[in-house]
Amino acid sequence: MDQSAVITAERLTRRFGGRPGHDAVRGIDLAVRRGELFALLGTNGAGKTSALEVLAGLAQPTSGTVRVLGQDPFRSRRLVRSRIGIMLQSRGFAADLTVAETVSTWAGTLTSPRPVDEVLELVGLLTRRNVRVRQLSGGEQQRLGLALAILGKPEVLFLDEPTAGLDPAARKQTWALISDLLLSGTTVLLTTHQLIEASALADRLAILRHGRIVGLGTPEQLAATRPARITFHLPTAASPPHHPTSTPLPHLPQVVATINDSFVTLETPDLQSTLTEVLAWARDNNLHLHDLTARPASLEEAFLAITGSSEEVAA
Ligand SMILES: Nc1ncnc2c1ncn2[C@@H]1O[C@H](COP(=O)(O)OP(=O)(O)OP(=O)(O)O)[C@@H](O)[C@H]1O
């Protein structure tokens, strides 16, 4: 087990009871380092929430080991509770309390909470402090859940879909708050099915599919598992290889070339060297390549290829 990691899981499984039963988490290994944001990314039903609940110590694993800050977060909950914050999708607030009452009630259970109005300001709910919880919108309840999670200034924060249901401005505000918490040294494990969120926030991420990790790395490392792409319009003086007339495309090893009318797409594992070859070919043949583009693969392309699925993906 990685001793420097703040959250670790080894061969973690979670099986829901009943017959025939369901294996929601099927043997996860991961190690989240201090101060990083680690995202569990996956489509609906991939096992993200089931895994997060076990990692945060809210549920017991069926088998395998979890450690948070060196402790078993389920059996030794007392030892880690004051050092972690948890935001779940299902909230269960008392509907008749106001926003401020909800926060101060929760603050009463913590050793050194932030001041109520400070935390409400951080999540953008200060102007709603005297509104009853039942009158809050879904997005506002979501932000109240985040307020409670960060109230005790936790070292480790577990966030289950923290921006689900938020409008774009509230989502940006939440991202900025999470980035500030990271800067102050907080370790964050969050679940998301939004690729844009994973790209924007995650230092590293695990792609989950059917309860297993099928991809692990930085967003850039995962994107780099797919070929980069160069596109351009073939100049009239140029032609596909073996064409009897004019200037053939250069021979490019490991490159998959597709030509549609005059539009060329080159898929390459090495963007820089292929682009260098293409530009040298154009220069040597005095060709002007129209609409030339060159870009690495995106996280979305990698995600779709790795999971083999386009269902429920928000780009
Ligand atoms: N209490 C439960 N009893 C039985 N099966 C469950 C239970 N909770 C979750 N599951 C099943 O476990 C699988 C994983 O669910 P989970 O909620 O962890 O997925 P998720 O990746 O978080 O999905 P979403 O993005 O929709 O929240 C699903 O097939 C789900 O139906």
Structure commentary:
It is a peripheral membrane protein. Keywords: Antibiotic resistance, ATP-binding, Nucleotide-binding, Transport. Residues 7-235 form the ABC transporter domain. One of its GO terms (biological process) is response to antibiotic. One of its GO terms (molecular function) is ATP binding. The chain has 315 residues and is of the alpha/beta class. The chain folds into 2 domains: 5-223, 3-Layer(aba) Sandwich (Rossmann fold); 228-296, no CATH class. It contains 10 helices and 15 strands. The chain has helices at 48-55, 77-80, 99-107, 116-122, 138-150, 168-183, 195-201, 219-223, 271-284, 299-307; strands spanning 5-16, 22-33, 37-42, 63-68, 84-87, 156-160, 187-192, 204-209, 212-217, 228-233, 238-239, 247-248, 256-260, 263-268, 290-295. The strands form 4 sheets. It has a 6-stranded mixed sheet with strand order 5-6-7-3-8-9, sandwiched between helices. A hairpin with a 5-residue loop joins strand 1 (5-16) and strand 2 (22-33). The longest helix is centred in the middle third of the chain and has 16 residues, at 168-183. It is elongated, with a radius of gyration of 25 Å. 36% of the residues are buried. The model is unreliable at 310-315 (pLDDT under 50). It binds adenosine-5'-triphosphate. Adenosine-5'-triphosphate is lined by residues 16, 22, 24, 42, 44-50, 193.
